[in-house]
Design a protein that fits this description.
By secondary structure, the protein is an alpha+beta fold. The chain has helices at residues 2-21, 33-49, 52-58, 61-64, 69-80, and strands at 86-98, 104-114, 118-126, 131-138. Helix 3 (52-58) packs across helix 5. The longest helix is centred in the N-terminal third of the chain and has 20 residues, at 2-21.
Length: 139
């Protein structure tokens, strides 16, 4: 009986550690979670509408140098081709991160249900809320 109790306690502690790790890092000073998530949702909607040029136009200059509207389209299509059409957002969080250069930024992480598979959208913004980049991953 004691072994089962200790196993249960250990399992609960492991779950707690995992849940605490899911909160992410604090946002850079001056950034608000609601604004990061709202802007992230806006970009996600544009992605699912196929508004490649609009997304490209929102990107800051250094990001535009390494991509194009056509590249965004190709990336989105390959990322979600097996997931099917977007259905709904199921969960979200905003987290702070830092580039190797020391620049801080925020990422809106949106967990979404598509017809066939779940998709995670990670949409990054600099401290001026200008789009830096995005990552789309099918689960």
């Amino acid at each position: 009986m004691k072994k089962k109790l200790w196993a249960l306690v250990a399992a609960l502690l492991a779950c707690l550690v995992v849940l605490c790790a899911c909160k992410g890092n604090p946002l850079p000073q001056g950034m608000e979670e609601d604004k990061v998530l709202e802007q992230g949702r806006s970009v996600m909607e544009l992605l699912n509408q196929g508004a490649w040029q609009e997304i490209y136009d929102q990107m800051r200059a250094d990001a535009q140098e390494t991509t194009s509207p056509e590249a965004i389209e190709s990336y989105m299509n390959s990322a979600v081709e097996k997931a099917g059409a977007f259905e709904k957002e199921e969960d979200s969080m905003a987290t702070g991160q830092k580039l190797d250069s020391g620049e801080e930024y925020a990422t809106a992480v949106l967990y979404c249900k598509h017809e066939k598979k779940d998709v995670v959208y990670r949409i990054a913004f600099d401290t001026d809320m200008v789009l830096m980049g995005l990552e789309i991953q099918t689960k």
